[in-house]
Design a protein that fits this description.
With about 375 residues, the chain is an alpha/beta fold. Helices cover about 40% and strands about 20% of the residues. The protein has a six-stranded mixed beta sheet, with helices on both faces. A three-stranded mixed beta sheet has the order 3-9-8, with helices on both faces. Strands 11-10-12 form a three-stranded antiparallel beta sheet. α4 packs antiparallel against α5. The protein is flat, with a radius of gyration of 23 Å. It starts with a strand and ends with a strand.
């Protein structure tokens, strides 16, 4: 299981350049004019995880299979998108299908690249996009409440829950806040997700800075970080231009390039780590001589549901999970050493899988 992150922002902020770098393709045309991205570009990338390679080396695995993450390059929104300006309606629909939003903000100065609003102000840009998404949500909710009104008389619990949650969302939107500020009870989470409200999506602000500022950011990215902190959101600093250059290099050349730029890791790694934290995701591993493989699950996932990510039959016929923590597997130089050290555990249906667990599932076919 991976997750789908939509890359959004105003035109000419570096969305398509970032997408090209992330997916190591040139599928998205990066051009200096609005709406160069007409259809959403979808790309899958392997999630880099140094732990997987270390585990594979110990187990002499023939194949390494990382978990994957999907990015969607969504065309540039503009003021009035909620009313169909630009290509607004089409793009808003694309956002609904994503699990989270990576909001790319222009934090660089470049006279050769036009800004659709005629100025460089990432905080104002963020407010423009947020406003358009909030207006679209309000219009959608009002239509849906009218439609639900006819069904409420029947007393169907699902309809009642939808009506209650939509009204809670509309209340915060009318107060100028996004739907993600609504306090949702655990029992309501499934219904809440199915509402697919645009402003209920977790947001990661991606500050696109000049190459010289890639390591520490600049004054504009600092403003974005302050805004994100007030919202309880996250932000990362990336130079899309650098990431695009790195994506064309071999691994050893990329490491040398990063070192020369004063960067410890590629922006992709920072972006994925921030995305994982944003959505509360974690990774477990299955290790053997044939393959070493990583799997993505939400935090606090129980063992049977974690097994179900591999195959539905694993969840249905779950018996137990043989478990070794990542650090214990490394310290023991494999399963045998971990067992001898007393670090091998047998867990049942109520076990919450931990990040880095090395698991082997037993199940009835």
């Amino acid at each position: 299981m991976g997750f789908k992150m939509g890359i959004v922002g105003l035109p000419n902020v570096g969305k398509s350049t970032l997408f090209n770098a992330l997916t190591r393709t040139a599928a998205a045309q990066a051009a200096n004019f609005p709406f160069c991205t007409i259809e959403p570009n979808v790309g899958e990338v392997a999630v880099p995880d140094a732990r997987l390679e270390k585990l594979a080396a110990i187990a002499n695995s023939k194949q390494i299979i990382p978990t994957r993450m999907t990015f969607v390059d969504i065309a540039g929104l503009v003021r009035g998108a909620s009313k169909g300006e630009g290509l607004g309606n089409q793009f808003l629909a694309n956002i609904r299908e994503c699990d989270a939003i990576a909001h790319v903000l222009r934090c660089f100065e470049d006279g050769d690249i036009t800004h659709v609003e005629g100025r460089i102000d990432p905080v104002a840009d963020a407010e423009t996009i947020e406003t358009e998404l909030m207006l679209a949500d309000m219009e959608s909710i009002e239509r849906r409440l009218v439609a639900l009104g006819k069904k409420l008389r029947g007393g169907d619990q699902e309809t009642l829950d939808q009506d209650r949650l939509l009204r809670a969302a509309l209340a915060v939107l009318n107060d100028g806040k996004p739907a993600r500020t609504v306090q949702v009870a655990e029992d309501d989470r499934r219904t809440w997700r199915l509402l697919q409200l645009l402003t209920s999506k977790p947001v990661l602000y991606v500050c696109n800075v000049e190459e010289s500022c890639a390591a520490k950011g600049n004054s504009q990215s600092a403003r974005v970080a302050e805004m994100a902190a007030k919202q309880g959101a996250a932000s990362v600093v990336i130079s899309a231009k650098i990431e695009e250059e790195i994506s064309q290099l071999a691994n050893d050349e990329a490491e040398m390039f990063l070192s020369e730029m004063g960067l410890e890791e590629a922006g992709l790694d920072r972006l994925i780590r921030a995305g994982y934290k944003l959505l509360g995701l974690q990774t477990y591993f299955t290790i053997g001589p044939k393959e070493a493989r990583a799997w993505t699950i939400p935090a606090k996932t129980l063992a049977p549901q974690a097994a179900g990510v591999i195959h539905g039959d694993f969840e249905k016929g779950f018996i137990r999970a043989e478990t070794i923590g990542y650090d214990d597997y490394i310290a023991g130089n494999g399963e045998t050493g971990a067992k001898e050290a007393g670090k091998f555990r047998v867990e049942g249906k109520t076990y919450e899988v931990r990040d880095g667990d090395v698991l082997h599932f037993l199940f009835n076919a």
